[in-house]
Design a protein that fits this description.
The protein has 142 residues and is of the alpha+beta class. 39% of the residues lie in helices and 11% in strands. It contains six helices and three strands, in the order H-H-H-H-E-H-E-H-E. The protein has helices at residues 2-7, 15-20, 29-42, 58-71, 90-98, 108-114; strands spanning 81-87, 102-103, 125-131. It has a three-stranded antiparallel β-sheet, covered by helices on one side.
């Protein structure tokens, strides 16, 4: 996790931090708008990846950090699954699949039906999950 440890830090997300991040762009106008205007309303901490750093493995490094954070013995969240509502586009879905995430529903039509849409609806996002138990080694039996 060289880049994250060497160049990044966590801090409360407020207007001052956001102002210091300009110009920020992750390459998606909707996400950029969220980061610049809505994120402080939703979260006290956030880490975003600027489009200038795309395709360098930093996103996967960040995902590994998040996974390791939740399986650390000192973490008391009781979290077993990471759930994302990923944009239903090739690049974001591929990123999550590359990082071990699985679709919650076996098909887009099944997900549409089970989330209140007609089965033929083209979904804007897809639900995906990662089971953290896969990272925890079982104790050896004696």
């Amino acid at each position: 996790m060289g880049f994250l440890l060497d160049k990044c830090s966590f801090s409360p997300l407020d207007e001052e931090v956001i102002a210091g991040c300009r110009p920020f762009s992750c390459g998606n106008a909707d996400l950029d708008e969220f980061f610049q205007h809505d994120a402080p309303l939703y979260s006290k901490q956030m880490l975003g990846i600027n489009v200038d750093f795309a395709h360098r493995g930093i996103g996967s490094e960040l995902m590994e950090f998040i996974k390791s954070w939740f399986i650390d013995a000192g973490n008391k969240t009781g979290c077993r699954f990471l759930i994302v509502d990923a944009y239903n586009e090739e690049i974001p879905l591929g990123y999550y699949q590359k990082n071990g995430f699985t679709f919650l529903f076996s098909s887009e039509s099944q997900e549409a039906e089970n989330t209140g849409f007609d089965k033929d609806t083209k979904l804007r996002t897809r639900l995906m999950y990662f089971d953290l138990i896969s990272l925890v080694s079982e104790p050896e039996e004696e």
